[in-house]
Amino acid sequence: MTEFTVSNFLQLTVNGLVNGTEYGLLGLAFGLILGVTGRFHFAFTFTYAISAYIASVATIGWGFPYWVAMVVGALVGAVCGVIMELLVYRPLAARAGAYALLTIFVASLGLAIIGRNVISLYWISSASLQIGDFTNKGINISPITVSKLHIDMVAASWFLIIVMAVVLRYTMLGRMIRAVRVNPEMSLAVGVNPGAIYLVVFAIGSFLGGVGAVFEATDTAATPDMGFNPLFYALTVAFLAGLATSPLLMGGIGLGLGLVESWSNLVLSLQWTQLVVFGILFVYVALRPVRVMAMLQRVLPSLRTRAMAR
Amino acid sequence: MELQINYVNQILIFVIFAASLNLLMGYMGQVSVAHGAFGAFGGYALAYLFLHQGFNTLEGLGVGLAVAALGGLVVGFPALRLTTEWLILLTLAAQIIVIALAQTSSSFGGTYGLQNVAGLSVFGHKLLQPSDMLPLFIACAVITLLLCWRMGESPYGRVLRGIREDELACRALGKNVYSYKLAVFSITAAMAGVAGVLLVVTNQIASPPLFSFDLSTTIVAMVIFGGMGNLIGSVIGATVLVLLTPFFENVLSFDAQKASLWRLVAYGIVLVAVMMLRPQGLLPEGAAPIRWTSNKLARLRGRRPAAVATPAVAAAASGDGPPLPAEAAHGAFRDPTPIAADEHSLAGVRLPTPASVAVAERHDPRPVGEPVLQVTGLSKRFGGIVAAEGLDIELRRGTITALVGPNGAGKTTVYNLLTGAIAPDRGTVILNGEDISGLRPDQVALRGMARSFQDVRVFPRLSSLQNVMLAVPDQPGEHLGPLFFRMAHSRQVERQVRDRALEWLHFVGLDEFAAYPAGALAFGQQKLVALARVLASEADVLLLDEPASGIDQQWVDVMLTLIERMRDQGRTVCIVEHNLHVVGRLADHVYFMELGRITAQGTFEELTGEKRLAEAYFGIA
């Protein structure tokens, strides 16, 4: 537990904002995929981890500059996401009809397990990989300390969140994505190809996740199962915010979650704070079935038709 | 030798895990990725009580089972009203929370877990070697399988499958869906708890990695691989997936670390491959019961229905695992079925000829015309929208009442209000002298008011016969007490239920299709199955929502004849209908609804005679 002083409170707030930004970015990434395509893409954990691994290899192995390596890593993640949609989810959805949600979840779980263990097998000699070419330093603005990495991360993440908000709101592509999110069949009728939009969404979602992964791996290290907790935060943010929420609100919910988690240090000892977010989600799902039902009645029919769209 | 027995023990543990998860996920359709966490309740209970309280195996088993059951209830409560994606989310949260709690709490050993759980014994018999444990493990696995079998392949299991297919329709047939869910959640959690205890017995440790998310996904993989809704499949799934480890270690000579990674890769491949190549799993849901049914049917009709006998159809009729697309079932049903084109045939589908059967010949001795259902002042608002305002409705025995009105007038809402699917803001509903306002749909159904749905809502992967059997009231086998403690009685009643359901199918002219999955039938046939289902509930009051809409004219005649026959028997019928010919032919009394209010009532002739209504709605100048 952290003693309540003004400086502690400020430090916790900053930590919360840093983590919360990451949660918001991930919630946006996962929520975009689930909201638009209706695929419960559990293998997000794999595209996440592989991005970090590739970035590590690119910096340390191939001598790429940090930011280039990050983009390369995230792009590889995006390609993996697109391949999964093309080779697994789409054929499954075409066949499974009304049961597509469960079918795809199970297959996606399978992909996640395969991915994680293939990473372990390929990099079997080291339990984790570092990412190179980033000189981190602490920046002290009394009474708080924040690292350069965290500042970069917050800036880059909010940049991406705002770009996504602008793209979704003002561009043709954004309008097409929103059209498919609301009704894939109708959008087909007005000349938007939902299948192509799905691929774009998988690419964008996996890329955003990959950026987050590279930052996280820079902070600690890349491990085969590094995607699991982030997926859980992403799920929490996406479901709390609602799947059709604007990126900015998604980021805001992420910040809120990060702050609550961080501030809980003031009343709970450190090892218990990780349970706070899980607890929030559990209580939210548990206590609001009526509201949840009402929401589902709106979301589910479109998820079902979506499952059949190609 | 001990090494091989150890694998047998592992298999037995996973048989318990997989069979119980199958009951929850395959039979009842409630996805759970927290089954490993329920194992943790049992395993940690044993380890803790053994280390700190000196408990032994069986006491630990008992407590572990109870704690896990309690854990199942805690997760089951919020899961009551959730659909698939929220269930995934909820159980994922539960899995993470349970393991995080174990990891965080120092009394449970934190990250390292509770170690050195060694020296356990059963009846003074030390459990040192795998062979010492074998009898205990066999006993636990056999008991679990028997329990699952009894619960799954019985009237109880039929209700579970009904819940999987359509909760709302299940409640409308008088099943208390919530209590079923809570019971199955906690019973299967208790079984997982037992498996968790055994896992600790073999490993001599209770640690977070032992009960991690990996364990849960492994169990899911076994169920999916073996086949959802098939217990033998789960046994095979557990066996095959456990034996992958020795396969990789001994046959492919991988070292232990590599073998365990490859094993997980294989689990993942199993999940993806099964979903893509054979979504129903190795063994599709129970072929045997359906074959039995068709034989029974053949006996009843004195001949063998040719189409039902082909294995492909039997497989389709058995209703495959959830991932099976309805279209596929449909295709499997159509291809091998040569449908004779006789004079009744209509676009390749035989038209049913309603028959007289014993069940339908009973007459209600009570006087015709007596009010059975009295509704006063029924009102409901959704925000600012008036769905129903001050409705007064009376349904009389042995008559047909029609509710007509333009789309959006609130006719279906009236049914929802009457049956408790939606709680009214104000007003009373009195059925046979009893105030039933505020009761749940299942309670209303049990008091003798049954409804059909505009969108039919048959249970698509259950056979037509099972659809109707689900509706037959007072089945002891649908409750756990009689299911286990009055087996002979349950079995006897089950035979009567089957016969009665067959008679109702015969009554609507569909007995030939008894063994087909209802979802594979033509729409008109589905409506008749739904009608047979409503009739089989033996309710006094039948609320039918557009019984004649969306079906061909010839089917309409069949349907109307059946409804008239129900009226003549002394049942009280209410229909919502747009087709004025239908209303004119059937209705003794008509209520006209507009914007949630009843604005006119009388006989059909009186209403069509009213100039305003005739112009605005009936389209008769």
What is the succession of H and E elements of chain A? HHHHEEHHHHHHHH
Spans of chain B of at least 5 consecutive residues whose pLDDT stays below 50 are 287-292, 303-348
Q: Structural class, from helix and strand content of chain A?
A: mainly alpha
Report the β-strand fraction of chain B as a percent range.
5-15%
Query: What's the overall average pLDDT of chain B, rounded?
Result: 85
The most extensive interface, with participating residues per chain, is: A-B, 52 and 52 residues
Q: SS-based structural class of chain B? A: alpha/beta
CATH topology of chain A: ABC transporter involved in vitamin B12 uptake, BtuC
Instruction: Indicate the radius of gyration of chain A in whole angstroms.
Output: 20 Å
Q: So what's the oligomer here? A: heterodimer
Number of domains of chain A: 1
Low-confidence stretches of chain A: 301-310
Radius of gyration of chain B from CA coordinates = 28 Å
* Contiguous helical run count of chain B: 25
CATH class of chain A: Mainly Alpha
Task: Give the SSE map.
The complex is a heterodimer of chains A (310) and B (621).
Chain A: H1 6-37, H2 44-61, H3 66-96, H4 100-122, E1 138-141, E2 144-147, H5 148-170, H6 172-182, H7 184-189, H8 194-219, H9 228-241, H10 247-263, H11 270-287, H12 289-308
Antiparallel strand pairs in A: 1-2
Helix pairs in contact in A: 1-5, 1-8, 1-9, 1-10, 2-3, 2-4, 2-8, 3-4, 3-8, 5-6, 5-8, 6-8, 9-10, 9-11, 10-11
Chain B: H1 2-27, H2 35-53, H3 57-79, H4 84-104, E1 121-122, E2 125-126, H5 130-152, H6 155-165, H7 167-172, H8 177-203, H9 213-226, H10 231-251, H11 256-277, H12 287-301, H13 306-309, H14 311-317, H15 326-334, E3 371-382, E4 385-396, E5 400-404, H16 411-418, E6 426-431, E7 434-435, H17 441-446, E8 449-451, H18 464-471, H19 480-485, H20 487-507, H21 523-536, E9 541-545, H22 553-568, E10 572-576, H23 580-586, E11 589-594, E12 597-602, H24 604-609, H25 611-618
Parallel strand pairs in B: 5-10, 5-11, 8-9, 9-10
Antiparallel strand pairs in B: 1-2, 3-4, 3-6, 6-7, 11-12
Helix pairs in contact in B: 1-5, 1-8, 1-9, 1-10, 2-3, 2-4, 2-8, 3-8, 5-8, 9-10, 9-11, 10-11, 14-15, 18-20, 18-21, 20-21
